[in-house]
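Task 17 of the worksheet. Students: predict the tertiary structure of the chain below and write it out as structure tokens. Keep your answer in the requested format; marks are given for formatting as well as content.
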Amino acid sequence: MDAVDLEFSREFGVSPVVVWDALIDPELVIGWLGEARIEAEVGGRYDLVWLHSQSFPPTTGTITLLEEPRALTVESDNRGTLRYGLVATEFGALLHVGISVVIERAFIPRIRADWQSNLDQLEEMLRGHPVDWANWDRDRAPVWQRYLRSS
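Model answer:
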């Protein structure tokens, strides 16, 4: 097992406040990431149930940093440390996602594919098209597979 740090960035054509809400509002988080129980405060819960795969166990997390609307860090029991950083840009918001996890190197391509797909889903949700979880395999799995093959 190795300590791995992965970074992802995506620019969205909406204000940072809108992206921030999509990170901490359970009603929005379900539209791109999974079912969520979130207590938006340092020490609060950030629990996720992954809806696209029954093989992923739920994730229990604790918010360790919350600087609205710029930074959120979650320490999780099975997904490592998730760091979200938001920066205003000329055209909207730039979201940086950092993941620090101890994992076998063979799983790195899967994590990359998961987060590239998650950011696609966030972009779609911000455009008014949340994930249809019942049809994730039909609608989203082919893109996830392409990300996996390119990692």
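Marker's comment: The chain has a mean pLDDT of 96. The chain has one domain: 2-150.
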